[in-house]
Write a structure and sequence with these properties.
The chain contains 20 helices and 10 strands. The chain has 503 residues and is an alpha/beta fold.
C-alpha cells in the first residue's frame, strides 16, 4: 500500500511558488462555501510515520485557511477525566459541527496501531477495534460528514535521514525524542500493522490517502489539493440520500405483541410500598458508597408512555443518592447546536465518569420512537439507528457502565384517566400539553415502534426492563429493586475479575 509513496516525489520551488497562491484562494473559497451552506462537517484525520510532516501540514492548513473555522485537536495521552469514560468519548466531544472543519492530529487509529506494535494487544483485538472504527466512520458518513484520512509516509531510510536532520538543527532539535528513535527501531513492525489497518479501514465513504513526506513542497501541495478536491466535490454535488432497501417492519399478523402478555393488574399497597421504598432506597445508597462503585458508572434510561410515571420514579431514585454524584438529563427536541452534530453526539456528551450516575429522562431511543412515528427523520435514518444504538451501548458496557433501560407502560384507559387528572390539578397542569393528546391519537403506531425497539435493542448486555406502571407503587419498587440488583451484579463481576487465577 505504501509503494507509490516511496518513489521520491518532488516539486520544484518555482512550481510550488506558482501553485500555492491559487490553491490557497481556492481553499478559502471552499471553506467559505462550507460555512455558508452548513450542510456537513469536514473531518480530517492526520496520521503516519514520525518525521513525515504531519505537524507541518496541520500548521500549514491553519495558515492557508481561516483558522476561525478550523478546530485542531492534538490527541495525546488520555487525561484523568478521559480515562474515566469510554475511549471514543474524547473524539465524540471534539467532532466539528456542520459548516466547520475538524482536524484530528492523532485519532482513533493511533492507540490500536501503537498497542498492537508494542504487543499490548493481539491481532484479534486489533481486528475487533478496526471493525468498531469502520462502524463509527460509516455512521459519521451516513450522518453527512465528509471524512478525509491523510497518511504521511516515509521509507525507513528516509525516516532516519529526516530524524537526523531535525536533530541537527538547533531550531528543530526539540522535536526529536528518545521515543521517536525507539519507534524507528520498530519501523518494520509499525509498517506491517499500519498497512493492515489502513487496508481494512479504507472504505468508499472514507478512503485513506497516502502522501509521501520526503519533500515538503510535494507533501504540502498534495495534501492541499486532496482536501480541496474532496470539499469541492461534496459542495458542488450534494449527496442524494439513499432510501432504505430493506423490507418494511410489520406488526405480527395475529396482532399479539409484547404488551398483550403483561399483567397490568399488579398492585402494591401504600403500607407495603412505604416499607419497600425504605428498604431499596437504603440498599441503593449503601451500594453507591461501596468502594467498588468508584470503578463503575450507572446510566439509567427512562422511556415510556406519556403519563406513565417516569418523573415520579426518577425522584424515588434520586432520593437515595448524594446530589453531588448524579445528574438528570431531560431530553427534549434537539437544539440548533445539537442538530449540527451526528444524532448520538448530544448523548455522548452526558455520559458520566466512573463513580457517577446519569439518569436520562427520555434518551437516544427518540430516533426509533417519536422521530420514526412523526417522520422527523427518514426511514433509512431510523432503520440504521438500531445498529448504531447497539454499538453505542456496547461501548458503554465495555467501559464498566451499568446500563439499565426502563420502559414504563400503562393501559390506554389509565393514560386517559391521568391526562384528565392532570388537567384538573393546578400544579400538574404543566405536565399535560397538546402534544400529549396528539401522541395519544397515534397509540397503535407508537406501540408498534416500541415493540420493534425492544426486539432490536434488548441485548444480553443491555436488556429492556418492561415496567407495568398502571400502579405507581408497584412500578417504583420494581425499578428500585432492579437498579439495586443490576449494580450488585456488576460489583460481583468486578470482584471476580480482581481475584487472581491459581493453578
Amino acid at each position: 500500500m505504501f509503494e507509490s509513496a516511496e518513489l521520491g516525489h518532488k516539486i520544484s520551488k518555482a512550481t510550488y511558488g506558482m501553485e500555492v497562491p491559487k490553491l490557497r484562494e481556492a481553499l478559502l473559497n471552499a471553506q467559505f462555501d462550507l460555512a455558508q451552506q452548513a450542510r456537513f462537517p469536514v473531518i480530517i484525520l492526520v496520521g503516519g510515520v514520525d518525521g513525515a510532516g504531519k505537524g507541518e501540514t496541520v500548521n500549514l492548513l491553519n495558515e492557508w485557511m481561516d483558522p476561525r473555522h478550523i478546530q485542531v485537536h492534538a490527541m495525546a495521552e488520555h487525561s484523568d477525566e478521559e480515562r474515566q469514560h469510554p475511549p471514543m468519548w474524547r473524539y465524540w466531544r471534539a467532532l466539528p459541527p456542520r459548516g466547520k472543519i475538524g482536524v484530528f492530529f492523532g485519532s482513533w487509529y493511533t492507540a490500536p496501531i501503537v498497542e498492537r506494535a508494542l504487543g499490548k494487544i493481539k491481532t484479534g483485538e486489533l481486528n475487533q477495534r478496526i471493525a468498531a472504527i469502520n462502524h463509527f466512520e460509516a455512521m459519521l458518513s451516513d450522518e453527512g460528514a465528509l471524512i478525509i484520512k491523510l497518511w504521511f509516509h516515509l521509507a525507513k531510510d528516509a525516516q532516519k535521514q529526516r530524524l537526523k536532520a531535525l536533530e541537527k538543527d538547533p531550531q528543530t532539535r526539540w522535536r526529536v525524542t528518545r521515543l521517536d528513535w525507539e519507534r524507528y527501531q520498530q519501523y518494520d513492525k509499525f509498517r506491517q500493522i499500519s498497512e493492515h489497518t489502513l487496508r481494512a479501514t479504507s472504505s468508499a465513504h472514507a478512503p485513506w490517502l497516502v502522501i509521501e513526506g520526503t519533500d515538503a513542497r510535494y507533501r504540502s501541495l498534495t495534501a492541499g489539493r486532496l482536501l480541496l478536491e474532496a470539499m469541492r466535490k461534496r459542495l458542488d454535488h450534494p449527496v442524494t440520500p439513499v432510501p432504505a432497501n430493506a423490507p418494511p417492519l410489520q406488526a405480527a399478523i395475529d396482532h399479539l405483541d409484547l404488551f398483550g402478555k403483561l399483567d397490568m393488574t399488579q398492585r402494591l399497597s401504600d403500607k407495603k410500598f412505604a416499607a419497600e421504598l425504605e428498604k431499596y432506597q437504603g440498599r441503593l445508597n449503601l451500594l453507591t458508597r461501596d468502594e467498588r462503585f468508584a470503578r463503575l458508572s450507572v446510566i439509567a434510561v427512562f422511556e415510556g408512555s406519556d403519563a406513565a410515571g417516569k418523573g415520579g420514579a426518577i425522584r424515588r431514585i434520586t432520593g437515595a443518592l448524594d446530589a453531588r454524584h448524579y445528574r438528570i438529563v431531560p431530553v427534549a427536541a434537539p437544539t440548533e447546536e445539537e442538530r449540527a452534530q451526528p444524532y448520538l453526539w448530544r448523548f455522548w456528551r452526558h455520559i458520566p465518569r466512573t463513580g457517577r450516575f446519569a439518569i436520562f429522562d427520555r434518551s437516544w431511543y427518540g430516533r426509533v420512537l417519536v422521530e420514526r412515528v412523526e417522520k422527523f427523520c427518514s426511514e433509512s435514518d431510523w432503520m440504521r439507528a438500531y445498529g448504531e444504538i447497539n454499538d453505542f451501548e456496547e461501548q458503554l458496557v465495555e467501559n464498566n457502565a451499568v446500563l439499565i433501560k426502563f420502559w414504563l407502560t400503562i393501559s390506554k384507559d389509565e393514560q386517559l384517566r391521568r391526562f384528565k387528572e392532570r388537567e384538573q390539578i393546578g400544579f400538574k397542569r404543566f405536565k399535560i400539553t397538546p402534544d400529549d393528546w396528539r401522541n395519544r391519537e397515534k397509540w397503535d403506531d407508537y406501540q408498534t415502534a416500541v415493540c420493534d425497539m425492544v426486539d432490536r435493542t434488548s441485548t444480553a448486555i443491555a436488556p429492556w426492563i418492561i415496567v407495568e406502571a398502571n400502579d405507581k407503587n408497584f412500578a417504583r419498587i420494581k425499578i428500585l429493586r432492579t437498579l439495586c440488583q443490576r449494580i450488585e451484579a456488576a460489583m460481583k463481576k468486578l470482584r471476580q475479575k480482581s481475584v487472581p487465577v491459581t493453578r
